[in-house]
Amino acid sequence: MSFEERQILVVGAGPSGLIVAKEAARRGMDVLVVEEDSEIGVPCHCAGLLSLKGLERLNISTDGPYVQNMIQGAFFYSPSGLSFKVERQSPVACVVDRSIFDKHLASQAIRLGAEIKLNNRVLGIRLEKNYVVVKSENEILKASMIIDAEGVSSRIVKASGLKPMNPSHLLPGFQMDLYGVDVNPNYVEVHVGSKVAPGFFAWVIPLSSNSARVGLACRKANPKELLRRFVERRFKGEEYKLLTSRSGIIVTSGPIEKTFVNRLLIVGDAAGQVKPTTGGGVILGGLCGTIAGKIAAEAVNLRKFDENFLRLYEESWRRELGREFKYMLWARRILNALSDHMIDKGFELIIKEGLHETISYKGDMDFQSSVILELLRRRRILRMLIPLLRL
Ligand SMILES: Cc1cc2nc3c(=O)[nH]c(=O)nc-3n(C[C@H](O)[C@H](O)[C@H](O)COP(=O)(O)OP(=O)(O)OC[C@H]3O[C@@H](n4cnc5c(N)ncnc54)[C@H](O)[C@@H]3O)c2cc1C
Fold first, then answer.
1. Does residue 43 have a cis bond before it (omega within 30 degrees)?
2. In which residue ranges of the chain is CATH 3.30.9.10 found?
3. DSSP 76
């Protein structure tokens, strides 16, 4: 067995880990990313809907080879079939092929000097006084700092004594790419209700005017079976072909309580840094990854690996995103508590008071707190939600 020592070791080559690697490598750090799969971005579990503003915030091009389609709005459908549209004049989001997107991030990290080892699952870590020992399938490594970017099923979080996410907020999801369907090419569809997707929603994300990524996540139900029924209803009478299908876990818990210990930072899905309203984690996980890469590099430069210094990571991401997570988590709890009847009433109110225009105008796909507060300021919405405000 070989035995090498690195300054920063990142576990997991998903977007969060790769963004950490980029940020640390650009600051001259010796960075190694260790990935259990044999190919970056494969298998892919993600729908790939990313806001253009979010990509810009991450300094990632919005017209790279990973972009499959542009989106300028969304149609929302209630349990009884009421609907409203939110939209902008120009695109607000793109649909990316995550396997190409992740490879693009990996090549940027490598160009900046990071190294990536595939087929190398990390089995465990041990914190020593002057370094961390990392045992993987192929070797034993030593590093000054570890970044855990293992995704939703992180083992390092538990092993390091941190409190993991509550499993009841991890929802099973299932999605398929369909060809030969009739969809509006620039508008996403969101379908809610206990029959469609209890505890979450179903999505139709167009890839073109005749192909779409269709999926759902749910609570206490079988997403594959619910999706089969949804697709049958939504594309009734259409002759379509199933191109791919995949399952995955959607995080709706909000961030874990603490994301650092001596010599270790937790980022991305592993840390619950995902929007509880939509389950989207690439942008916010990436923003936290940017901060983690910067703080890890500072820790190496200053040789400060204790909690007193590393808490700066948590303080920074909470300062930037804490309020967003708080309000989105609150909105998710309220949405989960609404009956189908109340959801329909909510749709009626939104349509009657023209609130979809406020959402269109003020909404930000990633920083949702302002629009959530704006809606709660409306007297009739507040009155409807009063029985739920104990949540
Ligand atoms: C069905 C579905 C649809 C989604 N749609 C969207 C969407 O449209 N937009 C959006 O923003 N988000 C979406 N998400 C969420 C998004 O996929 C995640 O938030 C994002 O991938 C998190 O990135 P990450 O780098 O933190 O973790 P991951 O992408 O999960 O990457 C973790 C990496 O670590 C590796 N790994 C794990 N354990 C080890 C180990 N012990 N040793 C070595 N390597 C290891 C894994 O193989 C993986 O490559 C969706 C999720 C699902 C399930």
1. yes
2. 71-95+168-251
3. E
* Structure confidence at residue 362 (pLDDT): 82
Q: What is the pLDDT of residues 34-62, one digit of tens each?
A: 999 999 999 998 999 999 999 999 999 99
Q: Which atom of ligand 1 is nearest to the CA of 249?
A: 53
Which tens digit of pLDDT belongs to each residue from 27-40?
A: 999 999 999 999 99
Query: Span 185-191, mean pLDDT?
Result: 98
Distance from the alpha carbon of residue 257 to the mean position of ligand 1, in angstroms? 20
- Bridge partners for 205 per DSSP: 213
40 close to 118: Cβ distance less than 8 angstroms: yes
Distance 318 CA to ligand 1 centre (A): 21
- Pick the closest to residue 300 from 21, 76, 27 (CA basis): 27
Q: In the CATH scheme, what is the code of domain 3-48+98-166+253-321? A: 3.50.50.60
Ligand 1 centroid from CA 248, angstroms:
9
Atom in ligand 1 nearest the alpha carbon of residue 215: 1
CATH, range 71-95+168-251: 3.30.9.10
Q: How far is 356 from 375, CA to CA, in rounded Å?
A: 10
Q: Are residues 145 and 300 in contact, defined by beta-carbon separation less than 8 angstroms?
A: yes
With the most atoms of ligand 1 within 8 angstroms of its CB, the residue from 36, 120, 125 to mutate is 36
- For ligand 1, residues with CB inside 6 Å are 11-17, 34-37, 45-50, 121-122, 149-151, 173, 175, 215, 248-250, 268-269, 274, 279-283, 285
Q: Are the CB atoms for 331 and 323 separated by under 8 Å?
A: no
* Of 150, 115, 145, nearest in space to 14 by CA: 150
Residues of the chain with CATH 3.50.50.60: 3-48+98-166+253-321
**Chain segment 228-245, per-residue pLDDT in tens:** 999 999 999 999 999 999
User: Which residue among 69, 118, 150 has the greatest number of ligand 1 atoms within 8 angstroms of its CB, and so is best to mutate?
Assistant: 150
Exposure letters 229-251 (e unless 16+ CB within 10 A, then b): ebbeebbeeeebeeeeeeebbbb
